[in-house]
Amino acid sequence: MGAFGGAVFFSLWWNLPHTLTDSNSFSLPEYPEVVMDRSQLTKYLLEADGTDEWSQFLKRQIMFLHETDAILINTVEEFESLGLGMLRKTLKLPIWPIGPPLAPANQPSSSKSEDETAIMTFLDSQPPESVLYISFGSQNTIQREQMMHLAQGLEGSGCSFIWVIRPPIGSDLRGGFRDEWLPHGFKDRIKQKHIGLLIHGWAPQLKILGHRSTGAFLSHCGWNSILETMGHGVPIIAWPLSADQIFNSMMLIELGLGVELARGMMESSGPTKAKVEEVVDLVIGPDAKDMEIRRRAKEYRDVMNKAWDEEGGSSMESLQQFVQSINTAAGNQ
C-alpha cells in the first residue's frame, strides 16, 4: 500500500464520511482537499456502519498505527509527496519512504517457461511502445461480461497486446480457461493476425514492462504493479478493482500518468467495447495526450531510479536516517 492510498483508505474506514451525507461527493475530515465520490468506494465500505466486522477490524489496525514509533513505507518521496504529507499530518511520527526495492528487469532467468519464451518472442517482433500489457494481479479477475467487452474492444482497437487472463468471477479460478468466455473465434483471429497473446499462467512482468515494445499497462493498480510500472516509465490504463487500488488510480490520474478505463468488478462497472477502443487509442495512439502521458511517465521513471543513488537519493537518505535512529535508540538503552 502506498502513502496516498493508505491515507485515504484509513480516513474512510476511521470516519465513514459517506454515512454523514446524502451527497454522492464528500471530503475527508482530515484532508478536506481530497474529494471522494461514492463510486470510488468498495461494496464493504458502502455497507459499513461502524458496528460491522470490517469496521471493527480495520479501526483496530488503524489504532495500532498511531501506537507505533515510526513507519517504513515502500514508496518514493518525490513520487508521493502529497500522500506522505497526509500520513505525517495525521500520524505525527517519523515516516521514511524506502522504495522501490525492485530487482533488475534484465536479471537472467534460471529457466525459461514456454510462456516466457513466447512473450519475449512476441515483444521482439513488435514496434517500439506499441504493445498493451494487461494484468489484474495474481489475486484478481473480472466478470465474464467485462472480459467479453474488453476482448471486443481490444480487437476493435487493432492494438497489439499481451493479456494475462484467468477464469472470470464465479468460475473455478484454478480450473482451465474456456474459449466460451471470450468472443467466438477471438483466440484464432488474434493468433492469425499476430496482434495478441493470451497467457493463462505466470508472466515475467518486470521483463515485459522493461521491453522497448511495451507502450502501456492495463492494470488493477495494486501498489507493487504501480511501482514496477513507474520504474520503467510505462503509462497506465487504470481498472482498479478493490481495497486501495481505486485511490492509487486517483493519484496516478492526478499526476497525469494514466487514464481510468473502469472501476470495480461489478458487472455494471465494466467498460463497453467503444470505451475500451477510445481509451486504448488515447494512451497507445499517436495523439497529443498520449505523448504527454509518455513524457510524464518517463520523468517519474527517472525519479524512481534516482531514489537509491548513493549521494542525494531520497530513499537512500531515508534508509540511512532509519538506521541512524536505530543506532541512537540502542545507544540510549
Automatic annotation (TrEMBL):
<keyword id="KW-0328">Glycosyltransferase</keyword>
<dbReference type="GO" id="GO:0008194">
    <property type="term" value="F:UDP-glycosyltransferase activity"/>
</dbReference>
<dbReference type="InterPro" id="IPR035595">
    <property type="entry name" value="UDP_glycos_trans_CS"/>
</dbReference>
<feature type="signal peptide">
    <location>
        <begin position="1"/>
        <end position="21"/>
    </location>
</feature>
<keyword id="KW-0732">Signal</keyword>
<protein>
    <submittedName>
        <fullName>UDP-glycosyltransferase 92A1-like protein</fullName>
    </submittedName>
</protein>
<dbReference type="Pfam" id="PF00201">
    <property type="entry name" value="UDPGT"/>
</dbReference>
<dbReference type="InterPro" id="IPR002213">
    <property type="entry name" value="UDP_glucos_trans"/>
</dbReference>
<comment type="similarity">
    <text>Belongs to the UDP-glycosyltransferase family.</text>
</comment>
<keyword id="KW-0808">Transferase</keyword>
